[in-house]
Amino acid sequence: MRLRRIMVMFTARNxxxxxxxxxxxxxxFFPFLLVVGFAIMFGSDRHQSFKIGLFPQPxxxxxxxxxxxxxxxxxxxxxxFIGFSDQASGMMRLQHHKIxxxxxxxxxxxxxxxxxxxxxVSDTSPKGYIAERLLxxxxxxxxxxxxxxxxxxxxxQVPYIDWLFPGILAMNMMFSALYGVGFVxxxxxxxxxxxxxxxxPLSPFEYLTAxxxxxxxxxxxxxxxxxxxxxxxxxxxxxxxxxxxxVAFLLGGASLTAxxxxxxxxxxxxxxxxxxxxxxxxxxxxxxxxxxxxxxAPEWVRQVAACFPLTHLLSAVREIMNEGATLTxxxxxxxxxxxxxxxxxxxxxxxxxxTR
Amino acid sequence: xxxxxxxxxxLRQISKxxxxxxxVDGVDLEIPAGICFGLLGPNGAGKTTLIEIAxxxxxxxxxxxxxxxxxxxxxxxxxxGIMFQSTALLDFMSVAETLAAFRRxxxxxxxxxxxxxxxxLSEIAGRRTTDLSGGQRQRLLLxxxxxxxxxxVFLDEPSTGLDPQARHNLWAIIEDxxxxxxxxxxxxxxxxxxxxxxxTIAIMDxxxxxxxxxxxxxxKAHCPEVGISIPIPATAGRAMPPxxxxxxxxxxxxxxxxxxxxxxxxxxxxxFDLSELQVHPPNLESVFLNLTGRHLRE
Lengths: 356, 298
What we know:
The complex is a heterodimer.
Chain A: H1 3-19, H2 21-41, E1 50-55, E2 60-62, H3 71-74, E3 79-83, H4 87-95, E4 101-105, E5 117-121, H5 126-139, E6 148-150, H6 160-191, H7 193-198, H8 204-233, H9 242-264, H10 270-287, H11 299-306, H12 309-323, H13 331-351
Parallel strand pairs in A: 1-3, 1-4, 5-6
Antiparallel strand pairs in A: 2-3, 4-5
Chain B: E1 7-18, E2 21-32, E3 36-40, H1 47-55, E4 62-67, E5 70-71, H2 74-77, E6 80-83, H3 95-104, H4 112-118, H5 134-146, E7 152-156, H6 164-179, E8 183-188, H7 191-197, E9 200-205, E10 208-213, H8 215-222, E11 226-231, E12 246-249, E13 252-257, H9 260-269, E14 278-280, H10 284-292
Parallel strand pairs in B: 3-8, 3-9, 6-7, 7-8
Antiparallel strand pairs in B: 1-2, 1-4, 4-5, 9-10, 11-13, 11-14, 12-13
Helix pairs in contact in B: 5-6, 8-10
């Protein structure tokens, strides 16, 4: 292996990226637009369900007919219910926007006073506001005064944008890694660039390493620029360490890029590769909790989500950013990302062909 | 220990099959060092497949390739240069950057200023590869094939798609490379290109080498006759000389004579009007036609 040859390919790929002004600009503009656009859109989306957590209840989704609440609530559309065994686990989900509202069932007779239900809702969540209105409307049939009491959330409430922002960055990273490596290498194979490189002393390992390093460099570069631009407009709070965040993004980027290299290892059809990339990236985007939580989702959906590097990247990043977790605390996610990188790279290197 | 040999490249019983299709079928070739070796044949003859096997880009179904008498290694590959028939270049790079990038992939290589001068690239060194004309692009690809100062250079259809002027410019550069003592293996379906550049020519058709030798050897062996043609009206009322085989083509009668003087004498003796006579010296096209019954560009 020659570091010089890796550097040649690293430099060539970077030049291509920076000189392709349209693609270069779009790499920054796209995530920025998403952050702004979705921050606005979420307030007006009337077609999604609102997740209401209840405790103390058996953990997991609760069917409307099994709901220990009045018919008015059971019959309210667009509400889904998830049980938690205790307040702490429900509160943790609420604070991280995995549920929109948390209800304590059967609070009467205890500290809650005359109300049968006590609930908590995040003031920063647009979905929480609507869920609260729906819940109160559903309980109104029980008479006046409402048998419900709103309680203040103790401790730090994660602003919704703080929860959403890492998801958008990670999603952008996923698309950039998969398409920037998978699609580009297949195009190079199709138009003969790889065949030309095969005629040089460059080895597949050197080539793939250069591609991976280049993409990682560009991912991190884009990440920093987008972060700075968004931070100028939005107020983010990073509870954990920026360095820890960087490490998590770096390992996540490596695993996503390595995944792209598996796709890039063979094939000369850009159309087919595009189809496979869509097949991978769309489920990954929806199941990795970029936009919404999988709280209350069936177990098999969670297991599928666990197969995606984006899930572990987001989990680690949100824990660091929103909860102040250290690298040690997110070590399981980082270990999985590292393992995925090694597995994907090995598969990619073994399957790689310059011409087929 | 490789044996000392003046043969730089040997192909032994090379075959390449794609299912039932035999793209290359049992080819044996020995290419001496220091010559320009031409592989001539129509499109689809198997030239590119054969040359890519020789280059190490494709693996043969059977057979072996020896470089200076030994099996190829990564080290010997670095002593070869390749200009592929169709290659894209790295996007958004200039000519100079592309040359420098490829040069750095090798441990040893050419001086880039000399190389740019040889391939007439100095004046367009700063131009993006996407902005090059066909001829400039081929000259850059040729320069990339020479960037490691190879002993053996493969040129696969180097002038395909070029206008006559660009083609002749490219030929001049290839002649310069020849004069440096490098061995060149060139595939082409242009008869003129093979005749102009090649010392030895192998004619390939349907995956096989059907003739091999210098141009003179091929002409003498496979096309000894010279053609003499006159317009069809000039033969009106005259008996055809029995010793001169003839056929009609494009409004003319073409006679084939083993000796030009004897052929002309026979036509004069039979009273033909030779005022619009044309002489057709034998060429590689005629050789191919005689060997296969088809034209090179059919």
